Amino acid sequence: MITLSAVYCFTILLQLNEVVGFNCNSDNCRDCASNTDAFGITCRWCRRDNECHTPGAFLTNPCKTAENIVDPSRCGEKFSHYDPGLSLKMLFLSAAAYDPLHPQKCLDNSLPSADFQIQHSVTRKCADNQCSGYVAVSHTVKVIAIAFRGSECFDQAFSVFVETLFSPKEDFLSKGKVQTYWKGGFETLWPSMESKVKSLIADNPSYKIWVTGHSLGGAMASLASAWLSYQNIASREKIISYTFGMPRVGNYDYALEHDRLIGNSWRVVNDDDAVPHFPGVYGVPNMLFGPYHHGVEAFYSEPATSVYSEHRECHGKPNNEDVTCSFSEITRSFERHKNYFGIPVGTFWALDCVHSTRKKRETSEETNTTVSKRFHFVQNRCLKNKYINGSLHVTATHQTPRTIRSSSAQARSSSMSIRERSLFCFVVFFIST
Known about the structure:
Radius of gyration: 23 Å
Helix content: 25-40%
Strand order of the largest sheet: 3-4-5-8-9-10-11-12
Shape: globular
Oligomer: single chain
Largest sheet: 8 strands, mixed
Structural class: alpha/beta
Number of helices: 15
Strand content: 15-25%
């Protein structure tokens, strides 16, 4: 934790460096990152202006802390930028994670040219609900993909809300703390996924590793990508993480550690999506108290009807969370959270992902009806309640013949108890404040 005495001491050290002649005037990255003074302070090379900077020069250094290069071995790394085309592919991978029975079919239809093949999928009980994820590989695009599913239903969303409010954060890796529920979900799924990931990396050492997820899945993707780098399972430059509507995962120390471990990490936020504001902060995000976002935000300042809708990179100088981007949005929308680039992420598998083949399977597999009731919660129950609450201005659910909705789904929606409605309203109110 940064204290006034620490800041004072750091200022004195900088002045002593000036006296003894320590300067950061190197004209290349390797010399700059190798320039260390008697106190162990190293110059910083910033790729944004390709200049060498003195530590603490926040006003003249355009790079945030995690972007500064202080290790010569990192000088060869490429500077990453947000890639809309890659973002769309990652979103399809995230959407397929919601499919309870046939995620492979969803991938076949949504990303046919990439030819991703699922190598391992897992669904395990996490807390009183279930968490899911899968590992896939594409020899066509030379990628190993790791995707996590978001909240399954209202019960899980509410469990996340309650545990985040009342459970203390837990240590993760060497630095920082993360929310208890995210860590619990990750630790439930990862032991089953890790061995397959290691095997695929060993067999395909040149492949990139894409790690992704939507909502709760994004939080677990954050932990997985950091774990891969920290445990040296994959090198920092090979890991690429794109998350969608991700909540704040941990505190500032975790954010900084994540950025040190992952150089190509993007938090995609659709306009006034409510979930990236959770857990909430008082005032503005700060390094001393409360939750804090990591990575670079790719902010769509208007509803992201397309991956190429108006957007910008928000680097949040000097550190991460940029108050001029999604944080500046006054409204909070769950409709924006559900839909990214015109895709209803949580229910895409049942609406468009597998087309007519889904309908045929649904009529022949009794188990699908039971599972669909749970996974259609967001599409039917939650939307119904948001419409009841009016202020969010969300319309009723889609009514098409391709999935298991119609009269039975409406009956489930209208059967929500008074208690459930009250709890939902409380969640909406809390996140909206």
